[in-house]
Amino acid sequence: MNPSRLSRAPDDDPRHPDQQAAPPAKAGSPLTPAVSPDPWGLKRAENLILTLTGVLSARVVATAGGEISEIHVLTRADMQAKQVVRNVESALLAQLGIKVDHRKISVAQTADVRPIEQLQEEAVAARAKKRVVIFRGLEVHPADRPHRVQVRVQLSFGEREAEAVEQGTDTLRNRVEAAARAAATCLDELLPDNSIALEGAMLLDAFDRKLVLVAVHGLAGREAQLLTGTAEVRESAERSAVFAVLDATNRWTMARR
After folding, report:
1. Over the chain, what is the mean pLDDT?
2. Which of 103, 110, 119 minimizes the C-alpha distance to 57?
3. I want to staple 74 with a disulfide (CB 3.0 to 4.6 A). Which of 15, 57, 80, 181 is the partner?
């Protein structure tokens, strides 16, 4: 037997001594034997190579007679090609009894190898950059005067950031309005060619949920438009007020970029 030849699966070899001739199957019979999609065990060799250090992908090419003609391996950039070739030769010989000429093994390397989680994060970040305005932070603290709070909102637009601070009476309704007003002030600073002003903000119950509804005036040149937005209250009503302002203005400001 040629040592560089892959072993054919026994069930597909009519010369195998343990096999008995099967009776001819009738047309359409469910007993008709299926043809093995990998009679020479290429996947077994490829899976073995994939277990080697630094290997990212592997493909084994065989002739019609089952003799290995090519092995293509993709590795990390920090791997030495000669060492990878030796590892492949040793693994195939030790595990499968296959001896391969090192000249049949080609190694390619790549430096841009990142986990799928990182790729997903980068895709989300790239998508976020295309948004008009991005929420950066929210802080609610007691003010210097009794029974009053201070709401600080941070937003960004491209490479620019804006921060606004508003005060209000320490009630839920006034905290929501202060947060919405601070968000509108940030937008007014980030979008110098347009003007944003808060008309009002309120809490409401709808569809068994608590929502924040805001109305914002958007002015661009001589054009004035009343914009509305909503956000479900999840973490805090103040945070939802900021998101409601963004919901009201994102599409409007995107059309004027």
Report:
1. 78
2. 110
3. 57
